[in-house]
């Protein structure tokens, strides 16, 4: 079973589990091989390791990469990259583009690095175990200086404090409320990294679009929004948003992408992106 079968926009089901002993050259940082699966993406054009349990990439990562612009010679950064799915898909699509995969969990960063190597992208893609909210000098030490990046893409773990049960413990309550401005903090990091005219591309829950647009209003413009619908005639479940640092063009709302048809089967448009590697209109720049 591959990462692209049966999963709606979200996490993927388990893929091929490694039996028993680790393959030759297995990175020690990944620990036991049976804790990982080997999954096909884009109809097998890439194969990516990811944890058998826990957060797993799915359609969101493929959609994010398909909506991100890129050209040869540019530098892209995938913030909160996990095992690197979105950043690697972008690098595979755009020959000559360099990508840095930023992930706080060392094991996931090691997996992202191994995924780059095993897909022949190790010369253009690097992975670093780094907190997205680390100080600017920490990023610079990893080769990511302010204003030096052309593209940022991210699928952040946004939480809405309004939907969380209030804890009687004040420290836990403050921690939950602090999560409400996670989007603003990550957007600020993207703004710091990007050159003027560089682009930020995000995938986001559709019902939080208003909050996201308000946060992008500080320093970004030329915003383009593409809704993602799970089924025909239903409200969007995700939005893809591209914004330009310092841009001044008015907001553009693109026709939505519907993932399944009325019978519940994958739509032709979705299949072209999720299996065929087609890009979305936001990738044009």
TrEMBL record:
GO terms for biological process: methylation. GO terms for molecular function: N-methyltransferase activity; nucleic acid binding; S-adenosylmethionine-dependent methyltransferase activity. Residues 63-205 form the Methyltransferase small domain. Residues 1-24 are annotated as: Disordered. Pfam families: MTS. Keywords: Methyltransferase, S-adenosyl-L-methionine, Transferase. It comes from the Bacteria. CDD domains: AdoMet_MTases. SUPFAM superfamilies: S-adenosyl-L-methionine-dependent methyltransferases. The keyword Methyltransferase applies. PANTHER family: TRNA1(VAL) (ADENINE(37)-N6)-METHYLTRANSFERASE (PTHR47739). This is tRNA1(Val) (Adenine(37)-N6)-methyltransferase.
């Amino acid at each position: 079973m591959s990462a692209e079968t049966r999963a709606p926009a979200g996490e993927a089901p388990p893929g091929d589990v490694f039996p028993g002993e680790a393959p030759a050259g297995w990175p020690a940082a990944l620990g036991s091989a049976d804790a990982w699966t080997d999954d096909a993406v884009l109809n097998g054009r890439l194969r990516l390791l990811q944890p058998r349990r826990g957060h797993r990439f799915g359609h969101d990562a493929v959609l994010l990469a398909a909506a991100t612009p890129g050209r040869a010679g540019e530098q892209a950064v995938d913030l909160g990259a996990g095992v690197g799915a979105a950043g690697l898909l972008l690098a595979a699509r755009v020959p000559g583009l360099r990508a840095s995969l930023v992930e706080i969990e060392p094991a996931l960063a090691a997996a992202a690095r191994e995924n780059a190597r095993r897909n022949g992208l190790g010369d253009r893609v690097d992975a670093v175990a780094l907190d997205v909210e680390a100080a600017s000098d920490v990023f610079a030490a990893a080769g990511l200086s302010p204003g030096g990046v052309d593209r940022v893409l991210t699928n952040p773990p946004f939480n809405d404090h309004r939907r969380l049960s209030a804890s009687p413990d004040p420290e836990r309550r403050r921690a939950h409320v602090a999560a409400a401005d996670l989007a603003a903090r990550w957007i600020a990091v993207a703004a710091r990294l990007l050159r003027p005219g560089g682009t930020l591309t995000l995938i986001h829950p559709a019902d939080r679009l208003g909050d996201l647009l308000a946060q992008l209003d500080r320093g970004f413009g030329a915003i383009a929004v593409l809704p993602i619908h799970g089924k025909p005639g239903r409200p969007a479940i995700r939005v893809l948003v591209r914004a330009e640092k310092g841009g001044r063009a008015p907001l553009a709302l693109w026709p939505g992408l519907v993932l399944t048809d009325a019978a519940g089967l994958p739509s032709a448009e979705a299949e072209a992106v999720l299996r065929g590697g087609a890009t979305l209109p936001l990738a044009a720049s």
